[in-house]
Amino acid sequence: MSSRTLFATVWMAVAVFLCLVLYRPITTSPTTAATRPQPSPLQSATGTASPTGTRTPASPAPSPAPRTRSIRPAVDVTRLIRPERDYLGIAMDEAHKDPRQIDSFARRVGIRPNLITIYQGFGDDFAAESVEHIYRVGALPLVRWEPFAAPLADIAAGRHDRYVRSYARAVRRLNVPVAMTFAHEMNGFWYPWDAHHVTSSDYIAAWRRIHDIFRAEGATNVIWCWAPNVISGGPGVELIDWYPGDAHVDWIGIDGYFVAGGPNSYETLFGPTIREVNAFTDRPFLIVETGVEAGWLQRHRVLKSLLRGVAADDRMIGFVYFNQSGSRQWQLTGDPTALAILAEEAKRLRYGFTVR
After folding, report:
1. How far apart are CA 104 and CA 311, in angstroms?
2. What is the mean pLDDT of residues 339-344?
3. Is residue 321 assigned to a domain?
4. 29 belongs to a structural domain
5. N or C, which end of the chain has less CB nearby within 10 Å?
6. How would you classify the pairing of strands 115-121 and 87-91?
7. How far is it, in rounded angstroms, from Cα 354 to Cα 177?
8. What residues contact 125, with CB distance under 8 A and at least 6 apart?
């Protein structure tokens, strides 16, 4: 064999070997082929090729969507703002902590109170346990929030926003209906937040700021009750100047007490305040605090006037009796005749319903 023929034979063998090695088909497992998407003709693992041949960086993977907690919608309090029947409320020492007090009062009167007061200072933690207990016995908790240690100007300026936000979140988290007053009796002259100590602009700004924080936190399970004192006991303050506005108020509360020698009927004590407020809002009324002085000869007649007057007034949705000591002796529990009047009139009139 000539050298030329030998060279040609070797070259053909090498060529066949390279073809077999370099061009054999690539196989993939069925699982890989089925589950791994193939890049499009214009896409590679490091970017996307444009029709002109240039390459742009691959887009980063999208950030995972934030995880949101599933939370129940805020309980609807609409039906409680204008109820079909009237509230019969009670303020008693520690009644919100001791169910036996409520049970004992209900047995003696023959009707269970369906609105129970809690007093809290501005700065206190939300009394969730007491509020829940009140709600579980079929009553609406009424929190009276008193800013003794916090100037209204500071609240209005946002210096207490963190506390208010924390309180609002606790209210929303519990998610039961709650009525609240803030800085009540602002038209009096005995509290550090009243007309003799603060301006109406600071008062309104503080109220609105608190209300708006609650709404921003989703705490719409609150019924907001603006509560002046009866005007017969104040220094002639124009209530409209202190009103936060219908957008920030659900109820008009009134505080007023029957003392010996003073107004002796529902109309004479509460009528003037109701008429003044009627000039600037049509919100429903609730008497948030009242009592009839013990030992007064007219006590039983006045108590009847209160019960009948509230029931006959379409804008009035109930009252809370202050059944404890204060500036006078107000308790009914030591007066069997007064308890009998309360029982008889409450059953005969439109008082009482279970809060749910």
Report:
1. 24
2. 95
3. yes
4. no
5. N
6. parallel
7. 13
8. 167, 170
- What's the CA gap between 203 and 220, in Å, rounded? 22
Residue 108 has pLDDT above 90, yes or no: no
Longest dimension (CA), the chain: 148
pLDDT at 15 over 50: no
CATH of the domain at 317: 3.20.20.80
Token code pair at residue 278? 């009627």
Kindly calculate the radius of gyration of the chain based on its CA atoms and give it in whole angstroms: 37
pLDDT value at 311 more than 90: yes
What single-letter DSSP state applies at residue 247?
Answer: G
Average pLDDT over residues 245-266: 97
Cα separation of 86 and 73, whole Å?
Answer: 27
Q: Once rounded to an integer, what is the mean pLDDT over residues 125-136?
A: 95
Q: Fill in the DSSP letter of residue 122.
A: B
DSSP for 129-159, please give it: HHHHHHHHTT-EEEEEEE-SSS-HHHHHTTT
What is the DSSP-derived secondary structure letter of residue 242?
G
Q: Alpha-carbon distance 255 to 263, whole Å? A: 14
Q: Which residues contact 322 (CB under 8 A, 6 or more apart)?
A: 91, 257, 289, 290, 291, 330
Residue 354 inside a domain? The answer is no
Comparing 23-37, 127-141, 207-221, 335-349, which segment has the lowest mean pLDDT? 23-37
Domain tally, the chain: 1
Residue 39 lies in a domain: no
What gap in Å lies between CA 352 and CA 86, rounded to an integer? 6
Length of the chain: 356
Domain region containing 150: 85-348
CB count in 10 Å sphere of residue 32: 9
Cβ neighbours, 10 Å, residue 55: 12
Task: With CA atoms as reference, report the closest residue to 146 among 165, 169, 187, 118.
Answer: 118
pLDDT at 312: 97
CB 231 within 8 A of CB 272: yes
- Give whole-number Cα distances, 98 to 93, 102, 143, 316, in Å: 9, 7, 16, 29
Supply the pLDDT for residue 232. Answer: 72
Report residue 107 as tokens.
């047995």
| Nearest-angstrom CA–CA distance, 250 and 78 | 10
